[in-house]
Amino acid sequence: MGAWDRKLALMADMGLLPDGTPMDNPSIETDLKLAKIASDQPPPNETITPEYVELPLDNFAKDGDYSQEGTFFNRFWVSQSAYKPGAPVFLYDVGEANAEGNALFRLQNETSFFKQLVDKYNGLGIVWEHRYYGNSTPGPIDLNTPPEVFKWLNTEQSLADVDRFAKQFKRKNISYDLTPSGTPWVFVGGSYPAMRAAFMREKYPDTILASYASSAPTEARVDMSVYFEPVWRGMNHYGWGNCTADIHAAVQYIDKTAEKPSGAAALKKQFLGLGAEKNSNAVFADALTTIFNYWQSYGVEGGSAGLRSFCDFIGTDPATNKTSPKSGWAAVKGAKFTVDRWAAWPIFPTIVNSYLDTNCSGKADVQGDCNLDLRFSDPASISWTWQYCTQWGYFQSSNLGSHQLVSKYNSLSHQKDICHRQFPTAKAPLFPEWPNTERTNRIFGGWDIRPSQVYWSGGEFDPWRTLSPLSSESYLGAPMPKAFTTPPKCGEEQDDDDIFGFVLKDAEHCFDFRTTGVLSPDGGTSRGYFTAALDKWLKCFKPKKGGYGHPHARS
After folding, report:
1. Which helix (H) or strand (E) is 79 found in, with range?
2. Would you list the DSSP string of 392-417?
């Protein structure tokens, strides 16, 4: 994800909008008003400030000298207003973003699912910032940061950070042993943090008692063209088959026209204005793909820049004000009609400028500084690009074929070029030519991972479910286990054929982390499956030292 995606996800986390979940409300402006309403609450009864723990950059130093490579300070936030002795510690992992924007919301806002969970069990809540994000960095992260600085940015080290932190965690005014030796720890995360939730149970089962993994794409994969398949299926399911047909026809027309330099130049100026013709077909394809940026957070919604707005625009004939038939306008009027409507969508240049951090004029007679080939300058985008380019892949290239929604010029080769564009001086083995996904899957288990005491969830039309253990993409070799919702016994691992989890109908990314506003009908159901299991698993916790009173959930 780029910087713009993270801004959308962060907005979705705040107020009435949860962690990266889709928003069905037709207006982002309305969404922001709803978030403000949710934030206009009585002052919290607890003042929470950021805290830091010093951790080694290399958690796995062979000689045991963890300070040899240096240390950094990892940021976290703690709420203990609901805590009663013996209750669990809940850790909410923010993942690949600056955690400051939503830490207090997670811990103090009554609409926060995480706060509700902590309060239900009289627990202690922690919001954790991932190494190399926000203020948890060994130094400044910017375009001038040498590649060598990122040597210690990987998922293995970041998991070890949580383990090391948990084993030394304490509070001045709580005498109870809060480490995993005396208190059960529960890890909660969505998306990449959901992967980490599962990996912590797999790698550090004595540290994390239970995990909630929502929308966790645990299978590392270079080719993630499958990302757009749930978009195609979801749009058709929601009644936008005319729009997918038109996008498909338009993209194929654009691809064919762009094969000739003169045709490519004309298209770029038509869509983005004078100056855009200097860009390659590949980065122009990046610009075209931005119409789908809202899908994982909002589905077809998202206000004036969402797919509903886009589809309404290209599906309307301005000459007659008639809407397209089910087959779309391209089938009736030809693909060029749809291409022209797409290019005329007033907000399109604004979306491209915001996402690609450029300044295209959007007018064929106005020169713009329209460079679509810029490196990401946002610190979080820089760090995440390092992670996916070295370990995870997730190259969202064109889904060629009958469901194609993205230009063929958005190829795997182009996605690889983005990695090397971002880190032009980085060399192998520190920075591989292609993401080392085979090694990553050997380390973490991919979508075959089945640690005990983990609850998995995913949205029916979530693009990231395609690489999760709940994936339904059999043609990719997904294990296709049968999901069940009866809480398994403590320590009971599932085999390849089944999994403790749930797929939410009519949902996208992390849909079950929403508690108010526009809801998924399955959101509360999914959360209930986890808490039912947690009730069972907490009873199995046995402290290694000191006494322990089993926590009781508040009804």
Report:
1. strand 71-79
2. IEEE-----STT--S-TTS-HHHHHH
Compute the radius of gyration of the chain from its Cα atoms: 24
At CA 409, angle to CA 406 and CA 410, rounded to 5? 55
Q: How many CA atoms within 13 Å lie on the side-chain side of 422? A: 27
Helices (H), 358-480: 379-387, 412-422, 437-444
The H or E element containing residue 73 is strand 71-79
HEC profile of 16-44: CCCCCCCCCCCCHHHHHHHHHHHHCCCCC
Tell me: pLDDT of 458 over 60: yes
Could you identify the residue written with the tokens 């022209």?
340
**Residue 84: is it exposed, middle or buried by C-beta count within 10 angstroms (0-12/13-18/19+)?**
middle
State both tokens at 147: 């590649």
Query: Taking the chain, what is the end-to-end CA distance rounded to the nearest angstrom?
Result: 39
- 3-class SS at 293? coil
Pairing verdict, β 482-484 and 498-504: parallel
Q: Which of 31-40, 186-195, 392-401 has the lowest mean pLDDT?
A: 31-40
What pLDDT was estimated at residue 494?
Answer: 87
> Can you read off the two tokens belonging to residue 21?
């979940």
CA dist 236 and 238 (Å) reads 5
| Pairwise CA distance, residues 226 & 292, whole Å | 14
Contact 368, 272 (CB under 8 A): yes
Give CA separation, 49 vs 9, 90, 335, in Å.
Answer: 23, 17, 56
SS3 131: coil
Pairwise CA distance, residues 334 & 324, whole Å: 12
The residue ranges of every structural domain in the chain are 3-222+447-538, 229-422
Q: How many CB atoms lie within 10 A of CB 354?
A: 16
Distance CA 459, CA 522 (A): 10
Which tokens go with 352?
Answer: 């491209």
3-222+447-538: which CATH architecture? Answer: 3-Layer(aba) Sandwich (3.40)
pLDDT at residue 19 tops 70: no
Residue for token digits 């958690």? Answer: 59
Burial of 457 (0-12, 13-18, 19+ CB in 10 A): buried
Q: Where are the alpha helices (DSSP H) in 315-375?
A: 330-333, 335-344, 348-356
CB 296 within 8 A of CB 463: yes
Structure confidence by residue, pLDDT tens digits, 257-288? 999 999 999 999 999 999 999 999 999 999 99
Q: What is the DSSP letter of 527?
A: H
- How confident is the model over 389-412, as a mean pLDDT? 98
What average pLDDT does the segment 106-133 reach? 97
Look at residues 333, 338, 313 and name the one whose alpha carbon lies nearest to residue 257: 338
DSSP string, 189-205: EESHHHHHHHHHHHH-T
CA distance 282 to 479: 33
Cα 457 to Cα 214: distance, rounded to the nearest angstrom:
5
